[in-house]
Protein 1
Amino acid sequence: MSELLRPPSPWPAPQARRREFPADFRFGVATSAYQIEGAAHVGGRTDSIWDTFARRPGTIADASTGEVAVDHYHRFGEDVALMRELGVGGYRFSTSWARVRPDGGAPDPEGLDFYSRLVDAQLEAGITPWVTLYHWDLPQALEDAGGWRSRDIVPRFVEYALTMHEALGDRVRHWLTLNEPWCTAFLGYAGGQHAPGVQDDVGALRALHHLLLAHGEAVRALRAADPSVAGPDAAPLTLGIAPNFSLYAPLDPASAADVDTARRLRDAQWGCFVEPLLRGAYPESFLADVADLWPEDLVRDGDLDVIATPIDVLGVNYYNSWVIAAPDGSGAVAPSGASDDAGTSPWLTARESRWVPTQAPRTAMDWENHPGAFRDLLLELQALAGPRGTHLIVTENGCAYDDDVLVDGVVQDPERITYLREHLSGLHEAIERGADVRAYLLWTFLDNFEWAYGYTKAFGLVHVDRETLARTPKASAALVRHARADAGARVVARVRRVSRAAPARPSPALATTPAATVTLLAARPRQPRPASHSAPEAAGPGGSPSRRSPGCSPGRARRTRVRTATPRSRGRGCLRSSAARPGSAASAVRLQPDEHEPDGDHVARAAALGRAHGPLQREDVARHLLAREDRREPGASADRDLDLDRAEAALDARGPPVDLVRHLLRHGEEVPRAGWRGLPDRGVEAVGHAIRVGRGCDTLGECRWATGGGPTLEPSVR
C-alpha cells in the first residue's frame, strides 16, 4: 500500500506537556536468562529447549546461539555496577530452570549460588530485584517428556518455583511466574517460530491451559511457603504474571468482518490468558473459534479456580498495536512478529487476517509504534484487573533499531529516545486517567540474543560489542536516570558528560566510555505529514523505497549544510520549504552535501526549529549540543555548565532563539571573524540560519521570537 494511502493511527497520540510521575513510581530494566547469561555448560547446567532449537539449521537468522550470549554469568558484577551508574532502580531478570534444576531433576548448588550472588549484588547497589521464573528456557529433558503439552509439567514447575523461592525468598519480594505465555504456547507449539519449534495446533491449546494451571498452582504454593522463608519482618510478597499485549483496531469499524477479525486476534493473544486469570473463564468467543480443536479432556474440575487464584500484580509487556482487516481471499499468512519465517502462522484463529500498514513509524522489527494504544491498553487492563485488587506494572516496553555503530565512543539512538519518550507520555496519561500502574521496567538493559533473530536486532540501552563484549551505554540510557525525576521524555539543552567509575572487578572487555546524561521534558506528539507535502519516494538500494530526495547524493546525504534560496535559485537541497513567510518573499532552507559537516541529521533537525507549527523544539537543539560536546577543547569556558543552565532556562521560558544561537556560538569552535559566513563550525551556522530564516529575519540582530508565520519545513532525509 502506498504510504500516501495508509490510514493514520486510530489511537490519538499522547498530549505534549510536562509530566511528573508519582514519587513512589519505580523505573528499571528487564532481561532474560538465555538471552544474556551464556555459560551454557558451566556447573551442572544442561540443555534447554532453546539450546537445542538454536543448533537446528535454519532456525536462527544469523545461525547464532546463546552459548555465550553477552556473558552476564561471568560479568554480572560489572553489569550491576553499570546499572547503578545509570540510575536503574529495579532489575527484572529470569532464572534458568536448566541451570538450577538440570534436566528438571535435583537442585544444583552452583546454579542457585549464581542467582544468590546476583541478588546480593543488586541489593548492595540499591536495586530492587524482580524474579521471573520462566522466560521460555524449559529443560530439554522435560520437553522430551511432553513439555507444556503434558499436564505432568505442572507439578514440576511448582517444584522449581519453590526451589527458587527457598533460595531467594528472604531477599526477593517480587515474583512473576511466566513471561509471555502466548509465545510459549503459540510460537513454540503452533507456528514453530520459537523453541521447541513444533507445529501442533491441539498441542498449542494444551500448552495454553497447562501454562495457566502451572501459574495458579505456583502462586498458591509460593504464598503458602513465604512466611517460613521470609520471616515476620519481610516486606509484602507480590506475585504475578507477565503476558504480552497489543491492541487490534478494525480497519473499517462498520465492517462486521473486520471487527470480528480484530476480536479474534485479541482473544488469541491475550484474552485467552487474562480472562481466565482475572475472571475464571476462557472467553466464550475464543472457545467458539477453537471449537474444532479444543480437547474435551483438557479442563478438569477445579482447574479454573486454580488459574484464577488472586495475584497482586499483572505485568504488561507491550511493544506494538495493529490495524486489522478481514481475510480477502489472497491466502496471505498473518505474520508471526517473531521471525522472518513466512511459514505457519501462530494465529490459529485468524491465520489469513490482514495486518494493514498505517502512517505510524516502524522499528527495525517492522513493528508499528502507537503510544496512544499503550495508554488505551493500560486503561482497558485496569478495568479488568482493578476490581480484583490487582495493580499493573509495565514489565517490558522497548524497541529495536539499527543503532549498533559507535562514533567517538558513543552510540546515538535518537529513534529509541523518541519511542521511549512517547510511550512514557502514554503511560503517564493512563495513570492520570486512573490506571494503577506502579513501575516501568524497560526492555532491555543490554543488546543480546533476540531469539529467532539472533544478534541481528538490538533492543538494549547498552551496546555490546560482539567481538569483545565491551559494554557502552547508548544516549538513551540516560532516560532511566532522569525519567525518575522528570518523567516524560523530551530531551532539552542540558547535556553533560559523566565519567564511569571503574568496576570493583574490572574486565578488559568492559568499555569505559563516558555515558551521555540528559534532562527530560514532555514529548511533542508526531504530526502526520500532509499528503501534498510528502517527499517523493525514490528507489533505494535493491529497489526499496527511500526517503531521500532525488537531488541528494546517497553517499553523502548525512553530511549537509544550510543555505537560503529564492524560487529562482533553488538548489538540489534535501530539505524543502512548503510555505512562504508572511511579509516576505517565498524562501526555503535547503540542505546540501558538505564533507565538513559533523552530522547532517543534527543539522536537518536543527533546521526544523524554524517551522511554524509550534514552539522551539528542545530535542533538536539538544541533539546538536550532544553531537558537539565531545569536540570542544577542555577549558574553553570555565562556566560552561552555568551557561548550559541559562540556555535551558531560556528554552523553558520560550525565550528568543537569538539567545540560544549566541550560546551555541560561544561554545562552538573558534570563530575567526564575526558574522555567519566563514564559520568552521557549520553545525552552529546551520542552527542560526534555520532560526533566522524560519522566524522571518535576515540578520542575527533582527531575529525576534514569533509563534506564527514562517515556512513549514519538511525534512526528506532521516
Protein 2
Amino acid sequence: MSIFRKISAPVLLLCAIEIFLLLYFPPSLILEPAVTTGGDTHSHFMSAVVMRDAGSFFSPITWFYGNFGGFPLFLHYFPFPFLLMALASFIISLEVAFKLITLLAIIPLPAAVFYCLKRLGYPGQVSTAGAALCLPFLMMSENHMWGGNITSTLAGEFSFGISFILAIVLAGRLFTDAPRRRSLLANSLIEALIALCNGYPILYSGMASGYFPLRGRAIRYIVPLHALALGWTAFWLLPLMRYASWNTPFAHWWSFQSAFELFPPLLWPAIAGALIALGFQARKLLRRIEPSDKNALSPVRPEVSPGGTDRSCEASMAPGVMRATPREAPESSAEAYLWWHFGIALLGFGIAPHFGLVDIRFLPFAQIAIVMLGAIGWCRLILWLPRPNLWLSLFTAAMIVFSFVRSATVESWIRWNYSGPEAKLLAEPFRQATHFLVGSENSPRVVYEHSDITNGAGTVRAFEMLPYYSGRSTLEGLYMQSALSAPFVYYIQSEISETPTTPLTTFYYSRFNPERAAEHLRLFNVNQVIAVSGGTCNALDISPAFEPQAAFPPFRIYLLKDAEPSYVTPLRFQPRRIPERDWKTVQYAWFRKSTLKTPLIVADDNTPGDYWKTVPVFEGAPEDIPEIPISGPD
C-alpha cells in the first residue's frame, strides 16, 4: 500500500483509464494467430507480409505484382508500422504482431493527451481530465472513416492513428522545447516517425508549427527541426517526391449526412468543457483583470488543504484568479496554442480537396483539441471545489461509464476484426474459392465483383488478398493512390459489378457491361472472374464471353473465353504516339471509347531514342484511331 501512496492521484486515474481501455481487447482474440479482417485492415496484412519477406523499409520502390497490375508498394504509402510488424514477427507470429501494432493506434492515446497537457504546463488534474475525455472520443462510432478513434482504426486507419498519437506528443513537446531550443534531435526524430506513419498528421504538424514563427519565437528552432526530420526521412521522402506525378490523386469532399457526424453525442462532454474554458477566457477579456504591482512578481506560496492536498495548483486554475508565478505565460498561451491547433485543423479540412487530399482526415485533430480544451474547462470548475481529487475521480468514473454504455458498436467491431476470417459466415466458401484459384504470379490474373455480400467473409475487400491466399494476382487493391492503373481498374469494376464503388470522383465510369468488360479483362491478362450477386451471375451465365467454371455459393467462378494466358503479346496493329501533355486523360479516353486494338505510346519529339520519331502522332478522338495491321513474317 505504501507504493500506491507515493503515486499521485492523476497517475493512478490514468492507469485506471488505460486498464479500462485494455479490457476491450481480450487476449484470447489478440493472441490468436488469425489474419485481422474488417474494412481496409484485412488488405493491409499483405503489406506486412511483403515487408517481412522482402525487407522493404529502406527500399520504398518495392514492386508488388499482386494488385493493380503491379505498383511500388511503399513508395506512396507509409512503411514504419509495417516495419514494426515485420520485426515483431521474429518473436511472435506475423498475425499476432499485426494485431499488436494496430493497438498502438488506440491504447496510448489517453497517455499521449495526458503527456501533452502536462507539457503545456497544466497540473496533473487537467491532464487526467484530458485522458478521461479521450475515452468517449475513442468510442465514437459516427466517424469510422476519419481516423483517430477505435472504429476508424479497425476500418484500417491504424497508420493514421499511430501518427496521430505521435503528433499529439510532438505538439506538447514543442510548446516547451521550441522557445528554449532544447531536444532538437529527439523532436526531429518524432516528426520523422510521424511522416513515416502517415501523411496527414505530418502536414498538420507542419502547419501547426507556424504558431512559433508567427509569434516571433523559436524561428531558429523550427527551421532546423523540419530540416533534420527531412534528413531522417530522405531515403523515403525523396523518391516519393520524385515520382509524385505517377500517382493517382484522390481529392474528396466529405458529404455530411447529419449534424451528429460533426458533433457526436460522445463528444458533447468535451465540447461543453471547451465552451466553459472559452467562457472563462471571455470573462477575463471582458473584465480586463490585471494583477496589482504588489502581487505581480510574488510567487504563489503553496497552500496545503486540511486533506493534505497542495492547493497552489487549484488556485492557479480557479476562475477569476490570475497566476502570479513564472508559469503565468505558459498557462495563458497554452490555451491559445490549443485554439490555434483547432483552427489549423479546420483550415486543413477546408483546403485539403484543392490539393488532391481527403478533407476529413484533418477533423480528428480539431476533435482532440476540443478534448484538451474541454479538460481545461472542466478543471476550472473541479479545482475550485473542495477535495478536487475526489471530484476528479468522480469525473473520470463518469467518463468511463458514459463510454461503456455507448460502446456496443466498438465491442462488436473488435470481435469481428480480431476473430479472423475463420469465424465468419462465409469462411468455408471463401476458403474453397481461394483454394480453387491457387496459382502463382505467372498465372493470369483473377478479377472479382465488388459486392456487400462478400463482407460475410470478413470484409468486402476480402478478395484483394488473393495474392496471399491463392498466390494469384488480382486487379483491385487498397493503395489506389499509389497505382497509375487505378482509374482503369475501377472502370473495369464498374463494368462487372452491380454496386461499384467508383472511388475516384474525377473519372467517368461505365454502366454494367460484361461484354465490354471482357475486352478490358483480356488487356489486363485476366482469365477468371469471381461473381457474387444474382444479377452479375445471371449476366455472365448468358454472356458468350464467359463460361461457368465452379461454384462455392455465394461465389461463382467464370472462365473468360479467348483470353491469352500471357503477360506479353506481340503487337497486331501499328501503334500511334501521343505527346506527354495530358497523356493520362488521353489514355483513359482510349481505354473507355476505342476498340483497344491500336496501342498508344507516350513520347514527345525530345524523348531519347530514334524509334519514337518513326511512330505517327495521333491527336484525334479515340473512336477515330486508325487500325493498321502489322504484317507478319513472310
